[in-house]
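hi! just following up on the protien thing from before. the input was this:
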Amino acid sequence: MNTEIDHDSNILKHMRADHEALQSVLASMSEVYFPPAAIKTLKRFSTVQAASWVGVSRAHFNNHADELGLTPELVGKSKQRFYTLADINAVRQHLAQKTTSDEKARLYDPRRRGDEELAVISCVNFKGGSAKSTTAVHFAQYLALKGYRVLLADLDPQGSTSGMMGIVPERVTHDQSLYAAIRYDNPRPMSEVAQKTYFENLDIVPSGLWVADWEFDAPRVTTSTMEEEREMRLRLAELENSLASGNLPRSEFERLSQEVDSLRVKMRGMSLQRLYFLRLQAALTDVQDQYDVVVCDTAPNLGYLSNAAIGASNHLLLTIQPQMLDCESMAQYLMTSITHQEQYEAAIKRALGSEYITDKTLHYLITRFNTASTPQNDVSKILRTYLKNVLDHSMVNTTAVEEARTRQLTLYESDRNQFNPKTYDRAIEFMNQANAEIEKIILRGWGRL
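and the predicted 3d structure came back as:
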């Protein structure tokens, strides 16, 4: 078969033309919405909104804001107050410090305390279009608005989550992407890769095309490490046999003993490198004291990156549309996940011990739910009947979310007056209900519920 092509085939011409056309229009749109020097900003919040996020009355919020000497923006003839998220957090912490009730202090300022471990939650599924990115970004923003310190990790090379947070994936450099923190050659500390965003208390580790390289690095390093480990094991067995002979001079015995100790240390380090699914978990130790929650968005597959996110997680949130095709896809996902999890646990037990296996919870969130659709309601009932831990609240399909995305915004960043008010209020209500239920998963993990 002749593999040399002197001229483009029709399909290559077609693909190249479409690629150039699409790239051109996307570049034009990017210049409008996100020019190179553009910096995304967060709106201010009315007193009603600010007070609701803290959980107090408007008057109570304004009184404490005045005590702190905050200077909200005054709008209109009535001089309605609008606060920044930094103002909201200042009031939140002020209230927590003043109250004598530990319970109220935690409601005002919910950040983790004492022996509460860093919570890592990953949005996962085989299938694209199940609203993983939308769920991850809205939940991360919800947590930040509630007062938590949040890191949003984008593990999808498509970079949808990064884009929703105002970062153009195509402009993310090698050292700026999540790849830099998990690569095998000269990795950067996660604390240096994490970026501040326009959302106070919400940082991001962005994605981009570079992140896809890890899908090739992980199996390559795993294979080469296994071969190296095999040679070390043979050498270790040889040394142990020599030491067991009992016929060695003291100096030789000590030399061989030191080599045995050195080999065991190296083999342990290589085991950690071989266990690629622990790579993200290890990288996160660098920032575990800086955040309360890490929210991971994964690619629609069970590749190396997705498995690294699962390996690092305490909680898995499987997003699913209430349609039969999605249910069939999810069944395949669960079957594959069972095999992977069994292999991971066995590998960790052999290399490190069972105490290194991270316990996880699994919950299901029904997304893009059309409440008026009889077939979707039927599928939703099936899911709730036969699966454990399906969340009571769904991510309801609403035009408000899509309208917000056309403006490069989330619901939490959008102004109500940009929408039909009833549509917006309904969308925010459903979004908050779902996110509050996901929040409870984390609180239960900390033993608060």
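The radius of gyration is 26 Å.
The chain has 17 helices and eleven strands.
cheers
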